[in-house]
Structure formats: C-alpha cells, structure tokens
C-alpha cells in the first residue's frame, strides 16, 4: 500500500504518521481539522477492498460498532471511503497493546490479570447487550492506557472479515491462537465464543504463553477443536487455583459448558478480586460423565450360594447301586440334575445383575429429531430425557433437537440423563417502518434486526425524492422470522422528460410565450431591444437554438424588438429677452473661472452684455447718466 502520510481524508483528517500495522489494516495517527484533536485512522489493506460483499458488511458492522459507548471500548467516530481508500476514524489511545505488555513483562501478576480481564469482560458485556459479537478478541486488539485502563478495539469488524481474512495469512496467524472451536469449524458463534477467546487471553496473561502452537494456522485451529488445554498450574505452579478455574471454564470446547454470559464470568472474577484471592470457586455446570452407583457386596453373596451349592450336591449325591442298571440310571439323573442346576444358577445370576447392576446402552443421535419422538426413544432405552434449554435457530425447525450433551454412539448406563437443547425455530422480529427512509439507512436497519432486502422496485415519483422508500412488504409491525426478506419500492425521483426547442425568432411575443408553455418549458427573462428593421413585439433572439433537446421546465429567455429608436426632441423656444445675457454668459463659460467676473470669452458679444445686466437696465442707466 502506498504511504499516505500528509494526505487529508474526507476533507478533515490530516494523516501525520503510521503508528501500527495488522493483518487487516494500517493504523495512522491523524489530526481532525474540524475539531482540532488527534484521532487514529485505520486504513483497510488493498486486498480486502476488492471484495464488494466484504466492504458492504464492513460498513454496516463499523456503523454498528460506532453506536457503542463504554469507557473500555475505543470510540468509532467516522467511516468513509476516498479514492478506493476505505478507512475508520477512531479514538486515539496513548498507550500500548496488551500483547506488547505481556511480551515486555513475560507474564502478568494475578492481580493485573484479574483487573484487566474484568475490564475486558465489561466491554464485551456492553457489546453483547447491543447484539454485537467481537469474534476477534486477542491481546493485539486490546489497548492499555498509561493509567492502566483497558480499551478494546475492532468491535464488529471481524464479522465482516470472516471470509476475507481466511486468505490473509498474517491475519489468520494473529487470530487463530485465540479462536473458539466453533469458529475454527466455521460454525455458529455467539457471546460464548468471545468468552472462550477471553479465556485464552487470560491464559496468556497469567502464564506468558498461549495454550496451542503449531506449524501452520490450520494445525493450531485443529488443536482448539481436538485437544484439551493444559491447565495453567502445570506450566506455572504459582497460578492461583481460582484463576485457573475461571480460565478452564471459559475455554471449554463445548459452548454449553462455558460461562453462560459475561455477567456470570464477572461474578466469579469479582469474587476473586475482592476476596484477596483466597476464595474457592465451584463449578455448577451439570456433568454426568461419571455417576457413582452403590452396589451390594457381590462377593459375599457368591460365597453363600457356593456354600449352599456344595451342600445340595452332597445331599443329592446318589448312593452306589449294587447293580449295573441302577448305576446307569443314577449317572443319567446326575447329569440331568447338574444341567438344571447350572441353568438355574445362570438364570439367577442374570436376575441378580438386572436387579443390582443396570444395563448399558448406546446413546442415539437425536440432533434433528422432533422433541416428542426423541423423548419417547430415550425413555424406551431406559435413559432420562432432560430439556436443558430452548433457543432460536436458523438451522433447525421449531421443536427439533439442536444439541445433546452426549455424543451419539457413546455407551452409558441405564438411567443416565441425556440433556438436549430444543429449537424454537427462527427468531421472530417485528418489521420496522421503512417508508420515508433513505435507501442507505434502510440497509443498516435491516441488517441490525437480522432481516435482509428482498425484491427492489424503482419507480418515478414527482413528490418523493430519489432513493427514498415509497412502500414496503411486509407492512410495519408484522412479525416475521429472522432472515426474512423485505420487498421495497424505491423512488427514482421525478421522471426526466425532454422537449425539443421550437423556432421562436420572428414570432409575436405572445405567440412565442404560448409555444414555450405548450412544450412544457418555462418563460424566462424577456429583454426589449430597439431595432430599425423589425417591428415592435417581434422576437429577435432565443436562449436555446431551434431543435435542441432540453429537460422540461427549462427556462427560455427571449429578446423582443421595441421598434425603431425614437429621435430626440429639440427645444425650439426662444429664451426670454431678459435672460439672453445670462444664457450667453453660461453658454460661453468653459469652467475656467470666468463665470465669477462676468466677462465673455470672446469679443463677439456686445459690451453691455458683459456686466451681467439686461438691455433695459443698461438703457435706463444711460438715460440717468445723460440727465
């Protein structure tokens, strides 16, 4: 992958430096320009971004993880894609991974192990309550801050990566040592799978070692399925028995034998923590592998019978016959008597065995069998039928046995209890209201409820925006089985209709307007312009050429002739006699400072007009001087 240091993602996340690398992604420290804070940006590797199905699941799972809010879970701020770079923006944690701390110290103290495990279990418990299973709990995904606070990261991402990471060797090597047996088999995983992985993490914290090693990821996975874990105290005799008890119960092969949930696990963890480590834990998990049956003293009975047999033989021993014929008869009777005696003893022994020693039978295969039939079959064989649990299943119909505590073919004594889990069928969920929602939002809502998209029909709508749900089937609040498909009708927005631009030039203004409206177009701006050659009201210009294809409701602008330009009117009125001098003075003033002295600029003006007075005043003044 090309180094992206210095790049800005999403217009706000400025990549500063690479701070980590894993099988799925590269981790960078970045600065959020909008909020001016440091964040961690996880960039998916190129080989994972080629799988569209993975990308879709990754987006949904990351959005689900973003809904988690817990002090022991790394917060997810944003998910995005830019130029084929798929990234997650998370809380930046200043600290080390739990794997780094184990490697540095070699192993952790019992107090540290319990404290860290409680914090991890609390984080898992919060996620499980929100129906999110981590599926990849390992020390590499657990951060430890400088003040010893645990921060679990990568919630929900492993679910999306299940298929993709199996081809990524480095990722498998990093995870397979902590896989649960059901994950290794590719079977159904639940919150108990996270508890198994946490048990392995505890094992590594307290001993400094992982329970299974192998030459390849496959060989390690097989050991999780087939081999029993070596108790931690065999590796380190200082490991407290109560911590060993928690580890061994968490990491049992059988899901039903583990802690039922994180609440049960936390209960034992807190007992150990607050008792100072002296508390002894007991396992309340049912186990019928070796029942004790009290038998009578068989040997003494045998001796008594043998003694009685000898006495009878002595009593019944025939006396010697004097004649040969009597001797033959005696031999015959002796043989017959002996035969009857042996058969009687054998019959008595069988009766004794049936009375005091129950017979043995093979456990039948009950998986997939209806509950009533399985119960009848078990009881006919002299075994006890016990329904331990009922749970939803997408693989078994309602009433079918989905699990039994003893494998088919195992020999057990009569009276042995056979525990089963009965399927409740597929989980029923209420269909949410999807109408009015955006298609992108709907995908997340359905996935979160365990539903999926069915048939999608796109239709034009003038009133509902593009990609908004118009209708759905089944209707909201209808109960359906988990995994059901919901059919949707989605808006394509208004249908795009086009019109051909008509020739408007040369038409009267009103005619042009009617032609525009008739084509489904809109009258735009109309400007008027004088023209000596075109009469008033005729269209001179249009904003689109004739024959052009445009969307309906497009505005068409026009230029309309206002006719020939009108000549300017000249003022033919003579100025009044008394204002002639003032007019001439103003007309000849060029703004050069002559207006103030009243002198004309040329000598063409009459002298008496230069003083700014009228002719009559001048005449009267002359007359006065003459007088």
UniProtKB/TrEMBL annotation:
Reaction equation(s) it catalyzes: L-seryl-[protein] + ATP = O-phospho-L-seryl-[protein] + ADP + H(+); L-threonyl-[protein] + ATP = O-phospho-L-threonyl-[protein] + ADP + H(+)
EC number assigned by the record: 2.7.11.1
Single GO MF descriptor: ATP binding
Protein keywords: ATP-binding, Kinase, Membrane, Nucleotide-binding, Serine/threonine-protein kinase, Transferase, Transmembrane, Transmembrane helix
Top enzyme category: transferase
InterPro entries: Kinase-like_dom_sf, PASTA_dom, Prot_kinase_dom, Protein_kinase_ATP_BS, Ser/Thr_kinase_AS
Region of interest (Disordered), residue spans: 303-323, 556-627
Record's compositionally biased regions (Basic and acidic residues): 307-316, 565-589
Biased composition (Acidic residues): 603-620
Regions crossing the membrane: 330-350
Top-rank taxon, per record: Bacteria
Residue ranges annotated for the PASTA domain, each copy included: 359-424, 425-492, 495-562
Annotated SUPFAM superfamilies: Protein kinase-like (PK-like)
Pfam family, one: PASTA
Signal peptide: none
NCBIfam families: PknB_PASTA_kin
Name this polypeptide is given: non-specific serine/threonine protein kinase
Source species of the chain: Anaerosalibacter bizertensis
Lineage: Bacteria, Bacillati, Bacillota, Tissierellia, Tissierellales
Originating gene: pknB
């Amino acid at each position: 992958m090309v180094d992206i240091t210095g790049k800005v993602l999403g217009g706000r996340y400025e990549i500063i430096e690479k701070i980590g690398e894993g099988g799925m992604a590269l981790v960078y420290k970045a600065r959020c320009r909008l909020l001016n804070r440091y964040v961690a940006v996880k960039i998916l590797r190129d080989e994972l971004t080629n799988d569209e199905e993975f990308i879709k699941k990754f987006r949904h799972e990351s959005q689900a993880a973003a809904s988690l809010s817990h002090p022991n879970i790394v917060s997810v701020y944003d998910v995005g894609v830019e130029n084929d770079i798929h990234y997650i923006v998370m809380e930046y944690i200043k600290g080390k991974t739990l794997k780094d701390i184990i490697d540095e110290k070699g192993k952790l103290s019992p107090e540290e192990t319990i404290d860290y495990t409680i914090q991890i279990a609390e984080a898992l418990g919060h996620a499980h309550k929100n129906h999110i299973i981590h599926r990849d709990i390992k020390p590499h995904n657990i951060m430890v801050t400088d003040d010893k606070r645990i921060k679990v990261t990568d919630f929900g991402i492993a679910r999306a990566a299940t298929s993709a990471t199996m081809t990524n060797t480095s990722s498998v090597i990093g995870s397979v040592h902590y896989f649960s047996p059901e994950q290794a088999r590719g079977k159904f995983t639940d919150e108990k799978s996270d508890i198994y992985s946490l048990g392995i993490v505890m094992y590594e914290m307290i001993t400094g070692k992982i329970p299974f090693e192998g030459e390849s990821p496959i060989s390690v996975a097989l050991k999780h399925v087939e081999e029993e874990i070596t108790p931690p105290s065999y590796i380190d005799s200082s490991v407290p028995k109560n911590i060993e008890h928690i580890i061994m119960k968490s990491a049992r092969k059988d899901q039903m034998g583990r802690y039922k949930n994180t609440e049960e696990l936390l209960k034992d963890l807190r007992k150990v923590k607050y008792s100072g480590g002296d508390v002894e834990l007991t396992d309340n998990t049912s186990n019928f592998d070796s029942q004790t049956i009290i038998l009578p003293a068989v040997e003494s009975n045998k001796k008594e019978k043998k003694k009685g047999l000898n006495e009878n033989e002595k009593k019944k021993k025939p006396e010697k016959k004097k004649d040969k014929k009597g001797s033959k008869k005696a031999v015959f009777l002796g043989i017959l008597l002996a035969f009857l005696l042996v058969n009687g003893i054998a019959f008595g022994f069988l009766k004794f065995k049936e009375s005091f020693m129950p017979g043995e039978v093979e456990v039948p295969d009950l998986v997939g069998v209806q509950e009533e039939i399985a119960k009848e079959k078990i009881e006919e064989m002299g075994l006890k039928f016990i329904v331990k649990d009922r749970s939803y299943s997408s693989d078994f119909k309602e009433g079918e046995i989905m699990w039994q505590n003893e494998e088919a073919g195992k020999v057990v004594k009569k009276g042995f209890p056979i525990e089963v889990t009965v399927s409740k069928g597929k989980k029923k969920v209420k269909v949410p209201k999807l109408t009015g929602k955006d298609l992108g939002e709907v995908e997340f809502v359905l996935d979160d409820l365990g539903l999926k998209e069915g048939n999608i029909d796109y239709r034009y709508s003038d009133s509902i925006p593009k990609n908004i749900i118009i209708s759905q089937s089944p209707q909201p609040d209808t109960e359906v089985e988990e995994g059901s498909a919901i059919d949707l009708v989605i808006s394509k927005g208004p249908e795009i209709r086009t019109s051909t631009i008509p020739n408007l030039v040369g038409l009267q203004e009103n005619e042009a307007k009617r032609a525009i409206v008739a084509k489904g177009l809109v009258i735009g701006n109309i400007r008027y312009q004088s023209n000596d050659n075109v009469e008033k009201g005729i269209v001179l210009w249009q904003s689109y050429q004739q024959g052009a294809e445009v969307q309906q409701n497009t505005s068409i602008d026009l230029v309309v002739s206002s006719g020939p330009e009108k000549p300017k009117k000249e003022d033919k009125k003579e100025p009044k006699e008394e204002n002639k001098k003032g007019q001439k003075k103003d007309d000849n003033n060029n703004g050069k400072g002559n207006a103030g002295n009243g002198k004309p600029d040329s000598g063409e003006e009459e002298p008496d007009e230069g003083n700014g007075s009228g002719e009559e005043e001048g005449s009267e003044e002359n007359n006065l001087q003459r007088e």
